[in-house]
Amino acid sequence: MAFIIFLSIVLSIYTLGNIYIFNKGINALHSYNTIKTWFTVIFCFLFLTYPAGRIVESFYLSYLSDVLIWIGSFWLAFLLYFFLISVFIDFLKLTNKFFSYMPELFFKDVFKFRVFWGVICFTTLMIIGGYINAKNLVVKNVEINIPKDAGHRKTLNAVFISDIHLGTIIGNQHLERIVSKINLISPEIIFMAGDIVDEDLQPVLRQNIGHTLKKIEAPLGVYAVTGNHEYIGGANEAIDYLEKHGITFLRDSVLKIDNSFYIIGREDMTMLRFTGEKRKSLEDLIGYANRSNPLILVDHQPLELEKAANEGVDLQLSGHTHHGQLWPLNYITSAIYKVSQGYENINNMHVYVTSGVGTWGPPVKTNSRSEIINIKINFE
Do residue 124 and residue 152 come from a single domain? Predict the structure, then answer.
């Protein structure tokens, strides 16, 4: 029921946003009937592509569903920026009623027509740039000190990634680039903070993505936790597949690595919504570890950071936020989360929140990078 309510809200916002943009376009094409007709046809097609693609994909995974989802995903990005630009134009019109600073030319049909095409060209260029940006992976280097005894181990070369969202949009080609860059770093261990699979597992199976995952090289292993998208698509099925291809999931569990440090892996907090069961408390999980050794917590969402610090966690790794992915949504994630992206030190606990190595929805990033985090830890 909660998911149905959430889906209804999302579809309502999506529909209302499309109606708003459509009316702005029709108004701009007031004197151009032929173009107005084509605009109506194309707009209706774009409006229907994403939901239609998801429906077709659920019944019959095919090139048709792929094309619809790809077009619809890009349309989501266009829709956001068309909406923001339209709101800005409406704001100018509203203030003009009070201050009358806009010349009459601005209200003529020919000027509206030019603005119409100008907005389309500007937004198209921005989204093309965002697509190129999303596909180009960067490696960010972070060095931290954890003043605890890690036995024989004095250093750890780790890779941290999150939010790949493997599926129709992020497929095997992008994953090959990720794996290639990871192996060039020669990490000893890899941490994955959830949302490895986008939602439906079938596109992953069709592309045999597990074969590429097996190419990841890390002598101490690859460890992951669940994200909200694993639960949306069916967590158990996705996890079974990923574990068969070299990824170890820590589901509210604690593991000591190389007799040196502990990994604490938490279930995503959306577990309650999808299963009706609560995840274990952090206090209970830490009870299975020796606090005198380094404690590394992997939790999909960067919440309750102060609580983790007070419990003695030395390093928390999280994702989920995408840092908004599309400007200016980063201001929203920054308001919600204490750390929306990057490194912070909270009460002597190291925190790193990554903007993700993949994308959700539009394969576009306009305010962050697709990043692989190389963390070099010194144990003192």
Answer: no
Q: How far apart are the first and last CA of the chain?
A: 50
* pTM (2 d.p.): 0.91
Please return the burial class of 335, using the count of CB atoms within 10 Å of its CB with bins 0-12, 13-18 and 19+: exposed
Do 100 and 148 belong to one domain?
Answer: no
Residue 30 pLDDT: 87
- Dihedrals φ, ψ of 371, to 5°? -125, 145
Q: Which domain holds residue 20?
A: 2-133
Q: Is the pLDDT of residue 373 over 80?
A: yes
In the predicted model, what is the mean pLDDT of the chain?
A: 94
CB 252 within 8 A of CB 285: yes
Q: How far apart are CA 180 and CA 4, in angstroms?
A: 39
Looking at the structure, tell me whether residues 375 and 265 fall in a common domain.
yes
> Does 199 share its domain with 295?
yes
Only one residue has tokens 């180009």, namely 136
Question: In 10 A of CB 277, how many CB atoms?
Answer: 10
Strands in the chain per DSSP E: 137-146, 155-161, 189-192, 222-224, 248-249, 253-257, 261-265, 295-298, 315-318, 342-346, 349-353, 370-379
Query: Rounded CA gap, 140 and 341, in Å?
Result: 12
pLDDT, tens digit, 9 for 90 and up, residues 94-149: 999 888 888 888 888 899 999 999 999 999 999 999 999 999 999 999 999 999 99
Residue found under tokens 């890779």: 159
Q: Alpha-carbon distance 176 to 187, whole Å?
A: 17
pLDDT band at 7 (very low <50, low <70, confident <90, very high): confident
Q: How far apart are CA 152 and CA 41, in angstroms?
A: 68
Angle, in degrees to the nearest 10, between helices 63-99 and 109-135: 130
User: How many domains is the chain partitioned into structurally?
Assistant: 2
CA distance 170 to 163: 10
Place of tokens 């134009």: 89
Picking from 79, 107, 133, the residue at the C-terminal end of a domain is: 133
